[in-house]
Amino acid sequence: MPPGRGLAGRSPARGLARVLPGVFLRGGAPGRGRKARLPDRFLQGGPGQGVPVALKSAGSIRLVAFDLDGTLIDGTVFIWQTLHEHFATDGTRRRQAADDYFSGRISYRQWFENDLELLRARGADRRGIGRALEGLRPVSGASQVLAELRRRGYRLALISGSLDVALEYFFKPALFDHVFINRLHFAPDGAIAGGEPTPYDLAGKAEGLREAARREGVTVRECAFVGDNDNDLQVMQAAGYVVAVNPKSERVRRMADLVIDNGDLRPILSVFKGVAGPEDGGHGKTDGGGRLLGV
Question: Which CATH class is domain 7-270?
Answer without folding.
Answer: alpha beta
